[in-house]
Give the backbone structure.
Amino acid sequence: MTAYLLRRIGYGLLVLIGVNLITFWLFFKVNTPDDIARIQLGGKRITADAITKWKAERGYDKPLLYNSAAQGAAKFTNTIYFEKSAAMFALNFGQSDDGRDIWYEIRTRAGPSLAIQVPVFIVGLALYVSFALLLALFRGTRFDLASQILLVVMMSISGLFYIIGGQFLFSKVWRLVPVSGYDGVMDGFRFLVLPVMIGLIAGIAGSTRLYRTIFIEEVGKDYVRTARAKGMGELAVMFRHVLKNGMIPILTGVVVVIPTLFMGSLLTESFFGIPGLGSYTIEAIQAQDFGIVRSMVFIGTVLYVIGLIATDISYTLVDPRVRIE
């Protein structure tokens, strides 16, 4: 187990370095330091002295990757890449291009994002798996057919419809919850009820149909027929065999969701005015703030690698045939 974890951590570091370099290269391929300075200073008619001063204050006056004028190790360390991108491996995210402390913003905004995404993830997974298992149990019946039609219709509707419709119905008509906003941890519950509910409704169609397909495939396998031949009831077969074996592909899909738990939902946070990491990322993209964008990409990559390792370990819990060596 230890050797396996060390190998996966090593692979993860290589992935992080690669993503870090590619993100850095792509951003400066599109925007030069002069372009960034011009954007942050707020216009095209900016003097060359103002641009030079802004770059010097923010550390953008150095070479990108290699400083030929420096001596020794400073040829690589006295560069924009080392100070602004490589430093993230030490969890030093620096400042955004408009001067705000990025790590402070991440710590502050992670709470609201987690308050939305964790309930949607946990309750949603339990709800979608249970409903899919129910459909697999009653496969081929009118209940199954009607549910499939309803799920297809729900998949065809844009997520924006659920957000706007939910705001209109629950906030404007029934006045049960606020339309948008967020008011701290203690009083934030009433602001989070609607986003969480909409997140569950918006994800039920695609996830349930996927999980139903997985369970239906398991139902037709030999071990299920053997269990039935031994006299085991259908409910016992579904919960003790089909559910357990179907969890392997489900866990594989779940890992993709893990980064969103911390990084938030872009649409949901923007429409509901939640000051989370999703809206933070949207604002950074609109402002073309490289400091924030590369930090969020880096964090997302770290979480994805961690999720992959956690998924491999979880395989051993649901399938005794899987062994990590």
Notes: Residues 229 and 235 are 14 Å apart (CA to CA). The chain has two domains: 2-90, 107-318. The domain at 107-318 is CATH 1.10.3720.10 (MetI-like fold).
